[in-house]
TrEMBL record:
InterPro entries per the UniProt record, alphabetical: ArgE/DapE, Bact_exopeptidase_dim_dom, Peptidase_M20, Peptidase_M20_dimer, Peptidase_M20A
Single annotated GO MF: metal ion binding
Cofactor: Co(2+); Zn(2+)
Record-given protein name: Succinyl-diaminopimelate desuccinylase
Record domain Peptidase M20 dimerisation: where: 203-325
Superkingdom, natural source: Bacteria
Family: Belongs to the peptidase M20A family.
Keywords: Cobalt, Hydrolase, Metal-binding, Zinc
Length: 435
């Protein structure tokens, strides 16, 4: 079946313009990687915003640097800076917004390249954040710049944002901008997350984080019968989870096109577990004191499906705890919610979805795959706080490389995704096209 019509003259010129900017796209990605925006703690956010300010101002964008005062993590040592850049067209119309997060996660071990060197090797740019998601940010900038160079008469507005803290919840970035009303003037949002160049990500599963604490009574470790071990109580909680909760979650399946396959069921991760006195420092030569632990804490990370209700998700956990309490002498607990995000999924008939889908067909000659992310990203804030559902994630990069050592993004993928983004701008903002 023929998937595409012949490209219009404007599309042909636009694709050629992006091809001509291939080296610039590569260099821009390298320059962004070389600004180490590690989160935590939130380093060099102002530096990368200033860099983007200089770049986008040169092509006529009006820029605004926005600090997320009092957001989680914001302080004088590590202020949460964001940039929002806007370029108006020749006449009124809709606004297309490209949103990329500027923060990257810890480097970790196992690298064979400089994590902040931006090395180009075999058509790939290496570095922390190359894939997630500075390659996508660079592709969106070059797509917009190429569109402005080729299309003289267009309507509406283009916005490009670089936002803080997506890797730690996005509260100092997109959530803050949404609360301040920045998305009220926006009609379409494309988030260039690395979901593979031929995929459109429609949304994500939900998440509920909680801390469970079991209580005991401290006593001398040589006479544990005089105390009550909170760690043993937590062991009973884990046993009950293994016996009843994990099997029940494995039976829950979704119609959401979640990738990978294992994420199509409900999942629970034991994020951390600690009992008793604080651990002694690694460089200490001392021994811990002999005490029965009177507290044990476990942090859980529950990922749930669009078919599930958040109240039911919480009730499953409290049900585990109450069953243990009913059958275990001296058992008591507290549970504290840490974080919640409801699932979201944009309809495949939404304007931004159909537009990007057609642009993928025109660029790659194939139908896109529609997927849903197993984890959350900043679409949650655009949807829930910004009240804008016309939002997708689409960008270059292989999802499996995110947060890994020797992370990279392919230059071919960045060029292809820049064409998809530019073709989308042409459809949404450009003049009528004829073959």
């Amino acid at each position: 079946m023929e998937l595409t019509q012949p490209l219009t003259d404007m599309q042909t010129r636009l694709a050629a313009e992006i091809d001509a900017r291939r080296d610039d796209l590569t260099l821009l990605t390298q320059e962004l990687i070389r600004i180490p925006t590690l989160n935590p703690p939130g380093e060099n956010y102002r530096d990368i915003c200033d860099f983007l300010d200089r770049r986008l101002s040169k092509v006529g964008f009006q820029t605004e640097l926005v600090r997320a005062h009092w957001a989680p993590g914001d302080c004088e040592a590590y202020p949460r800076w964001n940039i929002v850049a806007r370029r108006e067209g020749n006449r009124p119309g809709e606004c297309v917004h490209f949103n990329s997060h500027i923060d990257v996660v810890d480097v970790g071990k196992g690298w064979t390249t400089d994590p902040f060197g931006g090395e180009l090797k075999d058509g790939k740019v290496y570095g922390r954040g190359a894939c997630d998601m500075k390659g996508g940010l660079a592709a969106s900038i070059v797509a917009a710049e190429a569109f402005l160079a080729v299309v003289p008469d267009w309507q509406g507005a283009i916005e490009i944002s670089g936002t803080a803290d997506e890797e730690s919840g996005g509260f100092g970035g997109v959530a803050y901008l949404a609360e301040k009303g920045y998305f009220k003037r926006v009609d379409h949002v494309i988030i260039p997350e690395p979901l593979n160049v031929d995929r459109i990500c429609l949304g994500h599963r939900g998440v509920w984080w909680a801390e469970i604490e079991t209580h005991g009574e401290i006593a001398h470790g040589s006479m544990p019968f005089l105390g009550d071990c909170a760690v043993r109580h937590m062991g009973a909680v884990l046993h009950e989870m293994e016996q009843t909760l994990f099997p029940a979650l494995a039976q829950k399946r979704t119609d959401m096109p979640v990738v990978p396959e294992g994420a199509k069921q409900s999942t629970l991760n034991i994020n951390s577990l600690h009992g008793g006195q604080e651990e002694i420092p690694r460089d200490s030569t001392g021994l811990p004191s002999p005490c029965v632990p009177d507290s044990a804490r476990m942090v859980i990370d529950r990922r749930f499906l669009i078919e599930e209700n958040i109240d039911e998700v919480q009730a499953e956990i409290t049900g585990v705890l109450e069953r243990v309490k009913a059958g275990r002498e001296g058992f008591s607990y507290d549970i504290r919610e840490m974080h919640r995000v409801l699932p979201t999924m944009t309809d495949k008939s939404a304007p931004v979805v159909t537009t990007v889908s057609q642009a993928i067909r025109e660029t790659l000659g194939k139908d896109p795959d529609y997927v849903v992310s197993p984890g959350t990203y900043d679409q949650k804030h655009i949807d829930r706080i910004g009240k804008l559902k016309n939002c997708v994630a689409y960008g270059p990069g292989i999802l499996d490389l995110a947060h890994k050592p020797d992370e990279y993004v392919g230059v071919d993928d960045m060029v292809a995704s820049a064409k998809v983004m530019a073709f989308s701008l042409l459809t949404l903002l450009g003049p009528p096209q004829t073959p």
